[in-house]
Amino acid sequence: MAKVLIASQLNRSASLLLPVAPAAPALCQRKWYCSRADPEYLCRSIVPTMHYQNSLPRLPIPKLEDSIKRYLTAQKPLLDDEQYRKTEQLAQKFKQGVGKQLQEQLIAEDKKNKHTSYISDHWFDMYLSARDSIVLNYNPFMSFTPDPKAEYNDQLTRATNMTVSAMRFLKTIRAGYLEPEVFHLNPQKSDTQAFKKLVRWVPSSLSWYVAYMVNAYPLDMSQYFRIFNSTRLPRPNKDELVTDDQAKHLLVLRNGHFYIFDVLDRDGNIVKASEIQAHLKYILSDTTPAPEFPLGYLTSEQRDTWALLRQKLVENGNAEALKKVDSAVFCLCLDDFPIKDANHLSHNMLHGTGVNRWFDKSFSLIMASDGTTAVNFEHSWGDGVAMLRFQNEVFKDSTEKPAVTPKDLPAAVDSSKAVTRLHFQLNDVLKAGIVKARENFDAAVKTLAVGTMEFKTGGKNTLKKYKVSPDAVAQLSFQVAFFRQYGKTVATYESCSTAAFKHGRTETIRSATVYTKKFSEALVREPSKYSVGELKKMITQCSKYHGQLTKEAAMGHGFDRHLFALRYLAAAGSSSLPDFFQDPAYSQINHNILSTSTLTSPAVQLGGFAPVVPDGFGVGYGVHDDLVGCNATSYPSRDIQQFLQCVHKSLEDIFNILEGKSVKS
Q1: Order of strands across the sheet that contains 617-623
Q2: pLDDT, position 22
Q3: 212 exposure class (CB count in 10 Å sphere: 0-12, 13-18, 19+)
Q4: What is the pLDDT of residues 53-103, one digit of tens each?
């Protein structure tokens, strides 16, 4: 039972996107047993940040026969009988033959690398070897909830407060004072000051087991140290992640110009908030026109193209300026316009115009002139769990303990001496490269459509009353909607965190099942054939099976990452892939037309990502107490507005069925 509950919860905090009602380990439910006497830190946790890291369990390698069985089960709703028979034959041949050898190789490799997970290095390699632009293809965004005190959303005030809070987060984690990320199944026992005072004295090699004894599950925090001072450098064939934790400066982009100033002094203390405020005001008052050749466009280019152009930048005398960009604690992008609506927010925070962005940084804080703020983060170094914790902490600290008020005056300092505007020497080749990058960027982003939907008839409270999973119902609504719109069931990806394991990343919940397909067909094609009671039973069956898939994924027993690792080994050691991996059905199930993700946080207003395939949808969603929300994207081959209308209709039908009402055609 404990594993079911933690699996369900880990899925909620897995990756992205729209806000849903708070649940552990969400911001408002955690009990903080740490002091805040020192304004340099968010808090001083009783238990050191990395106390559980050494004793975290390792991500299990599933049995080959189990992964093959799960794979075939996931293929069932996607294939006709003849296709399924061919795929089943290839799978059985693989299981009995080369798959056995690859499984043995994977296990042997895992035994030699007990400090990490079997998926970690291969997953990094996949991301860093990808040559597509990281814009739209990889970088997602999560926007902050507005400050509840309206006057604090003033751009200068909020930028100052968020910068100070971000630096407090940096100092807190590096000092080991940040509260460890723990999921508490029995918080009355484990989320208490007494337990934390006890467990802090338990050796790190044993601490996880002590937490487990009281139904507490510490989560992996290895990604947190890539949040700051980090960037993805373009290299031929495979990019490189670099971190320079000695740098003390902030990178600010405004109107396409690059500015830096120190936010930590020589002793590592945070620069006075009033001085940071003064420096940001100085930057905001700069009337220099936007550059003719905005350098940020290069970070949106195909990675090999960008690698060549970056080398030319270095050769043309820009090495030091680039080093300042790469090593900055983070990037703050200050935009000169307000956000008009939710669609404008998504477009601006996901890609913007390209002029005022540097997409390679581990994360950028993007802030519009009305204070609307979001994080846009590079995805190779980590997943949504780490960025969500950052967002939670920065929102909580900047709104509850702001460093400056709207009435505070900036310090009387000479910001012209403290702030440096970086200058880049561009030759004709570099200028032509920027022009081409801009053309490619504009062509790509203009094809992206964004849409939002809110279903206000009911939400989590109603669904729990009928004992069905809110996440399962949301996923079911997407299956029915796509079936209603296009008449078929397609490969679907739902992100699930495996942070319960050392160096865990993510696993896939395959939300398109034989049960969702059966319900979709019944509801769309033959609603009059079934009674309300029969349809309700189908919903319950979908929910139950979705819960099983969620549990398996979160506990490391999905099939996607396992087969990915086996395929990686096969590709590295042979001139040709096994027939199993060349099966069109294998390619089809990994062509995720419905890519979906959710998270839990009161700090998040909206989030989004682009589709992962040209003919797909990117669906960020959340189930609130009394409503369901979606923020979705598509390219021209799909109609996003019609899809969202179908999602709304599907939710209406599902809620009516649960309440015993007949379905309206």
Answers
A1: 449-455, 628-634, 617-623, 594-597, 492-497, 506-509
A2: 27
A3: middle
A4: 999 999 999 999 999 999 999 999 999 999 999 999 999 999 999 999 999
The Cα 367–Cα 347 span in angstroms is 13
DSSP E strands in 410-562: the ranges are: 420-422, 449-455, 492-497, 506-509
Q: Cis ω on the peptide bond leading into residue 16 (within 30° of 0)? A: no
Residue 260, C-beta contacts closer than 8 angstroms, at least 6 positions apart: 249, 250, 251, 252, 324, 328, 419, 420, 422
Asked whether 221 and 50 are in contact (CB, 8 A), the reply is: yes
Q: Is 2 exposed, middle or buried (0-12, 13-18, 19+ CB in 10 A)?
A: exposed
Q: Would you say the C-alpha torsion 471, 7, 181, 134 has a positive or negative sign?
A: negative
Q: How far apart are CA 259 and CA 157, in angstroms?
A: 18
β strands within 573-635, DSSP E: 594-597, 604-608, 617-623, 628-634
Over residues 217-231, the pLDDT tens digits come to 999 999 999 999 999
Find how far residue 367's CA is from the centre of its chain: 19
Phi, psi of 657 (to 5 degrees): -65, -45
The 10 Å Cβ neighbour count of residue 282 is: 18
Q: Which of 575, 536, 554 shows the shortest CA–CA distance to 660?
A: 536
pLDDT at 14 over 90: no
Give the H/E segment covering residue 331: strand 331-334
- Which residues are the active-site residues? 379
Tokens standing for residue 265: 């002094």
Alpha helices by DSSP H, listed for 200-284, are 204-213, 273-284
- Mean pLDDT for 127-145 is 97
Whether residue 664 is predicted with pLDDT greater than 80 in this model: the reply is: no
pLDDT at position 210: 95
* Least confidently predicted of 24-38, 168-182, 241-255: 24-38
The whole-angstrom separation of Cα 207 and Cα 180 is 12
3-state secondary structure 150-198: HHHHCHHHHHHHHHHHHHHHHHHHHCCCCCCCEEECCHHHHCCHHHHHH
Tokens 């020192």, located at residue: 38
Question: Residue 387: its pLDDT value, please?
Answer: 95
Question: Would you say residue 553 has pLDDT above 90?
Answer: yes
pTM of the model as a whole: 0.93
Q: Collapse the DSSP code of 100 into the 3-class scheme (helix H, G, I; strand E, B; otherwise coil) and give the result.
A: helix
603: which residues sit within 8 A by CB, 6+ positions away? 27, 144, 145, 391, 392, 394, 395, 396
Please give the Cα distance from 390 to 306 (Å, whole number).
29
pLDDT at 265 over 50: yes
Sign of CA dihedral 182, 188, 189, 195: positive
Considering only CA atoms, which of 155, 140, 143, 144 is closest in space to residue 351?
A: 140
d(CA 214, CA 246): 39
- For residue 165, the one-letter residue type is S
End-to-end CA distance of the chain: 39
Structural contact between residues 617 and 453, judged by C-beta atoms closer than 8 angstroms: no
Cβ neighbours, 10 Å, residue 659? 14
